[in-house]
Design brief:
This is Serine/threonine-protein phosphatase PGAM5, mitochondrial. The protein is α/β, with parallel strands linked by helices. Helix content is about 30%, strand content about 15%. A hairpin with a 5-residue loop joins strand 5 and strand 6.
Length: about 230
């Protein structure tokens, strides 16, 4: 939807100036800035909680979030916003990270909630959600990808740096889609709690993966994958 040619009405092309008019309008719709997307997996949480509100961060999870927040702050970047899943573990992770990034606005969204994005290939025996879950969650997670992962708006003049705090399944699916890999392969990747994945979206639409699931800033004894 952000391909420049798709952003103009060809029926309104000036018949007198022809291609020059079209080229001018295309230039006006082209992105000029680069978007930096930082995908953060939530920290370790209480697996015994029956409802989402009970699945709060563990003491170790809170330490992990502090380390992730410190790492992001140490990059010296001017972050524009933190968009996070509305699930408890992602919200709590965001609150801790945001203490290290004062003034950065926070936005909660249901689109980034955890779920089953698409049936993995090859299939696995240890995780088999009901088929209906793929249809319900998959459409929502695909909507999250389309809504958040795209080239910069043509009006954006400077490069942007955005943080998304969400979940392993969501991040792995987004990475596959952004890199134009078969999305069914999302489960072949593994992400630690509090890890940082960095995607770069250039003005021409090309996407590069700078880091995937980085937790090198954490002491080994603090790293978990639950």
């Amino acid at each position: 939807r952000r391909e420049p040619l798709a952003l103009i009405n060809l029926k309104k092309k000036n018949e007198e100036t022809g291609e020059e008019e079209l080229a001018s309008r295309l230039d006006h719709c082209k992105a000029k800035a680069t978007r930096h997307i930082f995908l953060i997996r939530h920290s370790q949480y209480n697996l015994d909680g029956r409802a989402d509100k009970d699945r709060t961060l563990t003491p170790l999870g809170r330490e992990q979030a502090e380390l992730t927040g410190h790492r992001l702050a140490s990059l010296g970047l001017k972050f524009d916003q933190i968009i996070h899943s509305s699930m408890t573990r992602a919200t709590e992770t965001t609150e801790i990270i945001s203490k290290h990034l004062p003034g950065v606005k926070k936005i909660s969204t249901d689109l980034l909630r955890e779920g089953a994005p698409i049936e993995p290939d090859p299939p696995v025996s240890h995780w088999k959600p009901e088929a209906v879950q793929y249809y319900e969650d998959g459409a929502r997670i695909e909507a999250a990808f389309r809504n958040f992962i795209h080239r910069a708006d043509a009006k954006q003049e400077e490069d942007s740096y955005e943080i998304f705090v969400c979940h392993a399944n969501v991040i792995r699916y987004i990475v596959c889609r952004a890199l134009q890999f078969p999305p069914e392969g999302w489960l072949r990747m593994s992400l630690n709690n509090g890890s940082i994945t960095h995607l770069v979206i250039r003005p021409n639409g090309r996407v590069a993966l700078r880091t995937l699931g980085d937790t090198g800033f954490m002491p080994p004894e603090k790293i978990t994958r639950t």
